Amino acid sequence: MERPPNLAAAIDAAAEALVGVLDSATSRHTVSVSPTQLRVLSLIIAHPDTNVNRLAELLDVVPSSASRLCDRLEAVGLVRRVADPRDRREVRLIPTAAAETLLRELNDRRHQAVQAVLDRMPNRVQHELLLALLAFSQAAAMSAPQTGTDSAARTA
Question: Are 73 and 41 in contact (CB under 8 A)?
């Protein structure tokens, strides 16, 4: 099968459309935190027992920047710092119930927004899209270097 001449451009345009749908769903929520802070919360949830130094590595920032992000999240009640029971010199970052609720609600909104777009597509096309996305993900995984972060954390 021959590749359409503008397949990469079509994928880029579809990715932009998807980002627009997701951003719109997020902006309609009464979010009191920035996209960066949402990403921090997602990373903390995805990587239990994270401390500020590990968070800084995941974000590719200096520890003082990660600490300031956590200060702001702690001030609004979304993160707690607790001593590690195995080594009291270590401080772990723990998401609060409010943080978990916030992320769950945002994910639900985003999924609903994507589903609304999918509902406007014929079932056959939805199935073809699913197969194509699975194949794309597999091909990307074969060529992507392993960085230690998962895709959910990168997209938050």
Answer: yes
CA distance 107 to 105: 5
Using one digit for the tens of pLDDT, what is the confidence trace for 113-144? Answer: 999 999 999 999 999 999 999 999 999 999 86
Structure tokens given for 61? 């920032």
**Per-residue tokens: 140:** 């990307």
The residue among 103, 112, 120 whose CA lies nearest residue 41 is 103
Q: Do 59 and 42 touch, CB atoms closer than 8 A?
A: no
How far apart are alpha carbons 155 and 151 in whole angstroms? 6
CA distances from 135 to 53, 62, 139 (A): 36, 36, 6
Among the ranges given (63-67, 115-119, 148-152), the one the predictor scored with the smallest mean pLDDT: 148-152
DSSP 122: -
Q: What is the number of H-type helices and E-type strands within the chain?
A: 7, 2
